[in-house]
Structure formats: structure tokens, C-alpha cells
Amino acid sequence: MPDTALRVGFVLCAEFALMSLTGFIEALRHAADLGDRGRKIYCSWTTMSPQKKTVKSSCGIIINPDTDLIDADNFDCIVIIGPLLSGIDDVPQIVHGYLRRAHQRGKLVAGLCTGSFVLADAGLMKGRIACLHPYHLQDYKELHPKLRFTLKHDYLEERNIATVPGGLSVVSFATNLISRHCGRSRAAKSVFQMTMSETGLDSDFNAIVALDKQHIGDHRIRKATIIMEREMFSPGTVASVAERLGLSERQMERLFQKTLSMTPKAYWTAIRIKYGKWCLLNTQKTITEIALLTGFADCAHFIKQFRKVYGETPGHMRRLHAQKSDLALTRLESNSDRF
């Protein structure tokens, strides 16, 4: 059994946003185990409050925390989920001190939803930019007029302090954290189990998880790649993408060669094949279904391009992957009495 790669401690404020807690924990739960058994193998999570006091969420659901505010060395990341802003002044000073000590020990400290306000009150946002939800912008400006902020990101992490606006951004941040500590396959499994249905396989969220993002300097090519990734599920044309960017097809060809050392058509094919591989190893779709899903005219064309990239057919890769997964599961099950 692997050592737990990611340990997260949640500090709950009175009237905290329940979705921030459940969204984060569900991401951890799906990444933590094989299948859907919820065992804390790869990830673990602990809820905390001062003196282990019962905490009511903003929607009225009551949580009984696992423990008091225990030593931050038990965790890789400390998460503070803030209260309704009407109760921001009621956050105990012991919580502020706990967050400061955790940060001093080199732990990643993350503020979810109004947790960014708690971090600011604890003095941890000086010289940093808070990532806020627009709904909280005016309050943050009034309460912390000298601190900087942004509305342009799902989350922002600077020098071991992260701020996350809440909502679905919490899942995005949790997925990134899982990827860093447990690997991309754990993160992909988490998102797959949380968001992907048989009829919703082509959602933007799932596509983004399956693809490695690369740094692209030219903003026009960056926009082109985003369009291509969003439309990989339909047989679009390079000319139509170029037209949307105000470029000629020849201009876009030259920019792609200069920036990525490949043609637009080759890039589009590459991301379709890459996402096809992810579907192959993480879904029950047939190879024909995957070929059509990723914009190929037929299964034969998909198999030919797949073999060019990976040196084997999709069927062969899937069989080997299944054999390895079965072996790993057998070994894990044989030791299940240990956890």
C-alpha cells in the first residue's frame, strides 16, 4: 500500500459554505482509492474546529468536526473555509494564529470562499493577490483597501498561500493539488467520477483534465489551441479557426510552425489522439465510439493515427492497461486488512 500522498486538514468557520467542503472532499475521496470504496489510501482529510465544537454551515447543515486544531505537521495542506461575511469578525483569534503557524512551518494554506478574508485578517495576504468571487469584491476592497485582488482565475497560489473563490473553483484547485501530490492519473480519476456521464463525455471540464496544457507565447496561437480543444469533438477546419481569429489560413500555418513547430492540422490531430487515449484508458467506450467522439471520420483512421503516435493499436494498449490494473487491484485487495 502506498503512503498517503496528500493529507488535508479543513478548518471550519461558523456558517461556512458547505459546497466548498463537500466539493473538495469528494475530489479527495475519488482520488484516494481504487474504484469507489472511499478508503483513505492515497489521500486523507480531517475536519477541525477550535475545541472540536460543532459547526453549522451557511445552509444550516451541522457538521461534527473530527478533531480540535491539531498540529499542522499532520497535513500537507491546511484549508480554511470562511463564514458568511456578517460573521467574519467572529472568527476566533486562535484560528488566525493556527493559520500563521501552519504557514511558518512551510505548509500550503488555502482560503476557500471567504477564507481569503480570514487569511487577510490573519496577516497572510500582505504582498499577495487574493483571488475573489465578484460577489465579494466590494467587501474585500472596503475591509482590506491596501491589499490586491483579482477576479480572473479559478484560484491563485503564491508562496504557499492559495485563495479560491468557491463553487466549482474548489474542485479545480483540489484537482490540481491531487495531481501534484498523487499524479495526474489520480486527478483524472477524481474528475471522471465526479463529472463524467456516458452522455456527457465531451464536456469542456473532462477534456481539459485529459490534456496537458503547454505554455504558448503568441496570444493568437493560444486562442487557436483553445478553440481546437473545445471543438475536438467535431470535424472542424483550420480555415474556420483562422477566420475566427482574423487570420488567413496561410498566416496561421506560419504562426503554428514558428510557435509550436507543427502545422495546425497536426496539432489538432495530436490533441484528438491524446484525448482519445485518455478515453481509452478511463472509460468503457468502444474504440469506434472514441474515434467518432474525437472527430475522426472512421475507426480505421483513428487507429492509424493512434499507432503513429504511440506505436501500438488502441486495442492492444487497452488490454495491457486492463491487465496491469487487475494485477494492482488484486495485490491491493490481498492486503486490504491492513487499512
Question: What does this 3D model show about the protein?
Answer:
The protein has 14 helices and 10 strands. With 339 residues, it is of the alpha/beta class. The protein has 2 domains: 6-180, Rossmann fold, CATH 3.40.50; 198-325, Orthogonal Bundle (Arc Repressor Mutant, subunit A), CATH 1.10.10. The chain has a 6-stranded mixed sheet, with helices on both faces. Strands 3-4 form a two-stranded antiparallel sheet. A two-stranded parallel ribbon has the order 7-8. A hairpin with a 5-residue loop joins strand 3 (55-56) and strand 4. Helix 1 (18-32) packs parallel to helix 5 (168-182) and helix 5 (168-182) packs antiparallel against helix 6 (184-195). The protein is globular, with a radius of gyration of 23 Å.
Distance between the termini: 9 Å
Pick out the low-confidence regions: 196-205, 208-214, 335-339
* Highest CATH level, the class of the largest domain: Alpha Beta
CATH topology of the largest domain: Rossmann fold
Q: CATH architecture of the largest domain, please?
A: 3-Layer(aba) Sandwich
Spatial shape: globular
Overall mean pLDDT score?
85
- In helices, the fraction of residues equals 40-55%
The number of helical runs is 14
Structural class: alpha/beta
* Largest sheet features: 6 strands, mixed
